[in-house]
Amino acid sequence: MYDKFIRPLLIQPATGLISNPNYLMLLAFFNGALLMNFHSIYRKDLSFIIVLLFFGIISMINIRYWWASVANGVFTMVHFGGKFPRMANHSNLEFFIEIIILVLLLAKIANRRFSIPPNMAATLFRFSLITVYFYTGFHKLNTDFFNSNVSCVNDINTYALSILTSKPIALSSGISGFFQYATIFTEIIVPFGLLWTKTRKYSAIILLSFHIYLGLTVFGDFSALACFLILGCLVDFEAAKFDFRLLKYIRTYLFLIIATNLLKPFLDKYIVAQHVPHIHGAIFNIGAILFFIFYLKNYQPTGSKLSRKEYILPACCCLLISVWSMKTYIGLGNSANLTMFSNLVTEKSRSNHLLIDTRKTKIFDFEEDNLLILKLDQRLQKEKVEGFMLPVTEFRHRAANWVKSHPKWKISCTLVYKGDTTRFADLSKTDFIRTKWWYRYLNFRKIQPNGSCKCLW
How many structural domains are present in the chain? Predict the structure, then answer.
């Protein structure tokens, strides 16, 4: 019955607005990345995750239903739009990708003959991914990342290895040093291998292995986005044929992602908290490993040259990512722009980057106008800002949100600003809740008052 009726329906070629099976596969993978990103939103909005799962299941049933992935993209884009840019890095990237998908779809609706040159699509993926990886590594080129006492590689790898060994682990300085240089090599050097046909497959394997390892921690959501982007770097958009055996692995991949979402409430409630990311990521990893083993086993890299005009769009994407990420060195924010887990310090007084001295590059001094938080209302302890400094623009933005989110609270705070220590019994009655709309886009992380910079998101 399956071979006679169901299988022909599932593997028949797509027709209509989007017919290239490679684009359909990528949309399904992007849908999976969105599902992984919102795996815990059930705690705040159960209806939100139900809608996402509904369209995720439709994609799993048949990737020809591209509108299910677009529906989830539009649905989550509205959510992202209300929070951008104060989101995790992968959420910002997904927001940008959703905008591009929507613009391309509207262009296709307006003109059914509209199409992207196949080579441009692949180049766009490769240039963009290389740029993202480059800056995640570039920000790590600082003295504290290479300090084995505080390096961010300690936090991530200690956690990952502790899960694998079921006991606490502390990295020695030698192992920490190995991970430091391995991380820099993986993020700055390896991605360039995606540009050449001879090294593309092996570069993808290294990057996928890197994300499968991270998937065992709390980064399964970022790993799902990485799988989508890496797959986009491998796909031959010119191919007239599509290996329909891949459909089984795509469905398995999406099924396991959906399963992790459905299991998440159970895992949170009944499994020891520290093991939840491991189990959640391990389930996702199974689907990713099965798909990419089959895909790469049968992968034949191709390469075609682009005209100069066709390089314009990929180059513009690289430029936009660069501006977004490098604004930290001129004083326009140092969070959510690929500086995560980098140990980077950008204050004029103690810049730690090995190549960029922010004493010479800072144009704006928002970060230098800061205050020290000595004590914050007990009900806001999750903010974890006591004993840290915040730029005044950042504090104003957060304080205004605290007051808005908890209108019935009298939020107390003790802080030091311009040498004066002041205790406020109710922040809502102070000038510190007076904010401007553009403060939202000056996204700064908290500042450690002294010593080597410890690891921060």
Answer: 2
